[in-house]
Amino acid sequence: ARLAPGQEAAMPDFAKPDIVLHVRVTGRVQGVAYRAWARATALDLGLRGWVRNRGDGSVEALIAGPEERVRAMVLAMSEGPAAARVTDVLAEDAAPAAVPPGFEVRA
Fold first, then answer.
1. Distance (Å, rounded) from C-alpha 97 to C-alpha 20?
2. What number of CA atoms fall less than 13 Å from residue 41's CA on the CB side?
3. C-alpha 67, offset from chain centre
4. By the 8 A CB rule, do 84 and 28 touch?
5. Cα–Cα distance between 47 and 77 in angstroms, integer?
6. Over the stretch 15-26, which tens digit does the pLDDT of each residue have?
7. Cα–Cα distance between 38 and 35 in angstroms, integer?
8. DSSP code of residue 55
9. Closest CA relative to residue 72, chosen from 50, 49, 93, 41
10. Which tens digits make up the pLDDT trace of 83-99?
11. Residue of 28, 52, 53, 71 marked active site
């Protein structure tokens, strides 16, 4: 198919580079199965990374994958599992070197 002048071809998902975000979630997010929920949600979206509790009561995660799916995960993290009460989600770019295969729940 020929493109009209000035029209760009949409890149298929597999051709786009993955993005990596470091995410911090605050609120009532510990003791509510947030990490297990995050892992299940990430795996459903085909993402890689990890999630863990922090000493200050927040949850932190490293999420990698296609941009649209990573953004969907961050949006889902603003709700979390039913028992969670999320007050804030902060996401920022992160280095891809630290991303493990699969999605881990860390201590």
1. 9
2. 23
3. 9
4. yes
5. 14
6. 677 999 999 999
7. 5
8. T
9. 41
10. 999 999 999 999 887 79
11. 53
Name the active-site residue from 35, 39, 48, 69.
35
DSSP class of residue 62 equals E
Q: Give the ranges where 54-107 is alpha helix by DSSP (H).
A: 67-77
Gap between the Cα atoms of 47 and 44, Å rounded: 8
* Both structure tokens of 78: 């603003």
- State which amino acid sits at residue 9: A
∠ CA 24-93-16, rounded to 5°: 125
- Known catalytic membership, residue 35: yes
Tokens for 92, please give them. Answer: 């920022």
pLDDT digits (tens, 9 = 90+) for 44-87: 999 999 999 999 999 999 999 999 999 999 999 999 999 999 99
